[in-house]
Task: inverse folding
């Protein structure tokens, strides 16, 4: 494999290699000269059909800190707004001789489709999935695992890894690519994932997932090592999934009152951007157990690691073969 | 790497050039030389280049600390990302860079096991430049086997070892391999 399309494609060894290298990359972030020459002469294109702040900017920083040339193309202001098809857009960009395409698209499977077109045409472009529809967001899951691994290690250096850890993922599972990638990745690493959502926001087929499904958040909070709050995606919320935002908060928001139900050492994660006061209260987001800013910092390190794994060597690819 | 068909062939081809005692004497001498050249331990920082440069740097550091009764900062400097042959190999997993003190104004002694083409040292100089601006950079190697491809020379050498370019020099260190030894392996069967 020469692409990063899905967290489900990764085995434990590959994940560990990406996270370990991410630790080295994180050290570069603290240096006066934030630059490694490893990807000098490589070109990375961020092709974003959906809005993004942190994913796009962290891929951009990651590429630049590895000395790659990075350009950003967003749907707005590109030929996409003139009606160009996905195929024509990605093949146009690929034909310019770029080395990697970081794709975010509202359609599930768009990056995989792009990778197939490249294979058909014999183009050696690496594809990285930066979020596709409701399918996957593998680098988000990698940075979440990176952040949690570091947090668990700090708490108890004698106990390594995710075996026996219980991690709750709370909120709109149906529309969440973050949830799908995290379920795949954390399960591969040996953690027990607990999905907590109102029944209307649980996807069809969730029974077949390797997870525990619960509907009462209060019951779950005291049982878990970490709680991952998902964003309520207002842009996808036209279907009457819950009566009012207020009611959602009462049932599934991490409110100030619920903070007290968490174990004192439990970690709080959120992939961002947060709707403060809806799925997460300001008290929770800014509490001592919150790893939300660590997640953002980890985003750059983990994406540096992934870019290096894909582009750092001869064209066969590295850990992500 | 020579194309060996069996273990016996491999051992018969390998010729020992330094045994464990000679390795430790070479390290002790180099430790004294570094101190002498620097007129004491002031400002010294030892940075080993992974893999086997790191335990060598630690050994030199310990020997120097014993002589001077003061701790010498020892760290590691990974050069993988700075290599000029990255594109010619599958992706390499980088090692650790751990620099215990600021290198600004320090006298950095780079430590490696074998000096060959000089390309690793060039990469190390680039990596070091991104960490700060040392007052001076020195190079200490256990074995200098010649065949330089770049204008690089070592300041402190454990053993000058004339080799043919197709021969292979292997340094084994207890910390990594379980025993100390330097061998040379010829390509002719």
Result:
């Amino acid at each position: 494999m020469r692409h990063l399309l899905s967290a489900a494609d990764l085995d434990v060894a590959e994940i560990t290699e990406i996270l370990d290298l991410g630790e080295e990359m994180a050290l570069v972030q603290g240096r006066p000269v934030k630059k490694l020459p490893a990807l000098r002469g490589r070109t990375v294109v961020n092709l974003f059909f959906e809005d993004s702040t942190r994913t796009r900017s962290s891929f951009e920083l990651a590429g630049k800190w590895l000395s790659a040339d990075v350009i950003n193309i967003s749907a707005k202001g590109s030929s996409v707004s003139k009606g160009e098809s996905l195929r024509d857009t990605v093949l146009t960009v690929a034909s310019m001789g770029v080395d990697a395409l970081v794709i975010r698209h509202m359609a599930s499977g768009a990056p995989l489709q792009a990778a197939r077109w490249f294979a058909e045409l014999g183009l050696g472009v690496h594809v990285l999935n930066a979020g596709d529809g409701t399918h996957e967001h593998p680098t988000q899951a990698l940075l979440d695992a990176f952040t949690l691994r570091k947090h668990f290690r700090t708490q108890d250096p004698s106990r390594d890894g995710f075996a026996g850890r219980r991690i709750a993922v709370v909120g709109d599972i149906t529309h969440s690519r973050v949830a799908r990638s995290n379920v795949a990745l954390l399960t591969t690493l040996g953690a027990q994932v607990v999905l907590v959502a109102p029944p209307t926001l649980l996807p069809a087929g969730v029974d077949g997932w390797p997870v525990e499904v619960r509907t009462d958040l209060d019951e779950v909070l005291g049982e878990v090592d970490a709680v991952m709050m998902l964003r309520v995606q207002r842009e996808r919320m036209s279907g009457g999934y819950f009566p009012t935002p207020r009611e959602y908060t009462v049932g599934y928001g991490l409110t100030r009152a619920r903070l007290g139900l968490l174990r004192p050492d439990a970690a709080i994660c959120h992939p961002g951007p947060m709707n403060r006061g809806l799925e997460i209260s300001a008290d929770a987001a800014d509490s001592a157990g919150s790893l939300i800013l660590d997640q953002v910092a980890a985003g750059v390190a983990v994406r540096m690691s992934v870019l290096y794994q894909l582009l750092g060597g001869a064209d066969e690819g590295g850990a992500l073969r | 790497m020579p194309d060996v068909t069996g273990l016996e062939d491999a051992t018969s081809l390998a010729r020992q050039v330094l045994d464990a005692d000679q390795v430790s004497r070479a390290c002790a001498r180099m430790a004294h030389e570094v101190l002498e050249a620097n007129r004491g331990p002031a400002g010294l920082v030892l940075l080993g280049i992974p893999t086997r440069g790191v335990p060598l740097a630690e050994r030199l550091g310990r020997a120097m600390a014993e002589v001077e009764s003061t701790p010498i900062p020892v760290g590691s400097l990974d050069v993988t990302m700075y290599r000029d042959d990255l594109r010619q190999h599958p992706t390499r997993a980088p090692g650790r860079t751990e620099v215990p003190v600021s290198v600004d104004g320090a006298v950095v002694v780079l430590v490696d096991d074998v000096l060959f083409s000089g390309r690793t040292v060039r990469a190390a100089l680039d990596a070091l430049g991104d960490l700060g601006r040392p007052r001076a950079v020195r190079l200490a190697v256990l074995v200098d086997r010649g065949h330089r491809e770049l204008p690089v020379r070592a300041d402190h050498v454990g053993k000058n070892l004339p080799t043919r370019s197709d021969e292979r020099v292997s340094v084994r260190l207890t910390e990594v391999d379980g025993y100390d030894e330097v061998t040379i392996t010829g390509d002719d069967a």
Observations:
- The first strand of chain A starts at residue 43 and ends at 48.
- The beta strands of chain A are 43-48, 69-74, 100-105, 126-132, 166-170, 192-196, 212-214, 226-229, 267-269.
- The domain at 7-136+299-311 of chain A is CATH 3.40.50.1370 (Rossmann fold).
